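Q: Could you fold this chain for me?
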Amino acid sequence: MEKRTHFATRLARLLALLIALAVSPASTFAKTFMNTPRPLFFNDLVALDTGQHRRLTLPTERKHFGFAKGAHLLPLTVAEVGLALQHYPLVFVAEGETFALVALTGLPGQGNRFIDAQGEWTPGVYIPAYVRGYPFIALRPSEKAEPVLAFDPSAADFKTRSGQALLGADGQPSEQLKGIAAFQAEYRQLAERTTLMAHALNAAGVLEDGNLSLQPQAGGDAQKIGGFMVVSEPKLKALSADALKKLMEADALGLAYAQLFSMGNLGNLFSPPAGAPSTPAVTSVAKPRSKRPGKKAD
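A: Sure. Below is the predicted structure, expressed as structure tokens.
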């Protein structure tokens, strides 16, 4: 209960901060963002500014995901695991000293197998929150700076004629923009929590290099993939009672077993499931599919 209360408090503070910054001039962040590494999918990165972006519009619903077609690894948060493991193999990737949970959506060099030539996601298959959140993101311009709501001005979403204004004539955020800020605040908090869980698994010594050899069901040469980390079940079973307790206290034990179970989805990298039942669209990180954050579910 204490952990949930702390999480809710931090989320509320972050949401208030993002909304406050969204209606404030962002010129102070411009130079800093020029040196910020570009996140996945982002060709450019601009802090939202009420003065410069008063005419910015965005559709309330996305049907095309062509921008994610080339990505075979997609970030996930712990809140999404229950839905994601129904379709994807889940693995960990290390970037320096940071560990991230990701979904495998295809083989290296072959892109996302769950997006067709028209840019549509396989019906009924869970779409990760990071994908649904694009072209917006909440990030820190520098290590000690407060998070800022930023976007990719080159995104195709901003070029459609069916978009709705994100800022009112008075410069105040629309309900859609408030929803986007809430979504990104929740995502950032969950991403940080997920990183801590992955660190706990690594500290326990149960993560190992994932070098796999996959045999296509239709025959042909085996495909070798690697460059990520997976949970070692033997190492997990060999942990002492104290080590298991630490993982439980970090809420990481369930994540370890979820990763192990998800490897049963490796076959989907060759032939994604078709005609899976759809899930209702709601405005949270874990469950919406194509509707924009900020648009109410039917």
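A (continued): Residues 17-31, 276-283 have pLDDT under 50 and may be disordered.
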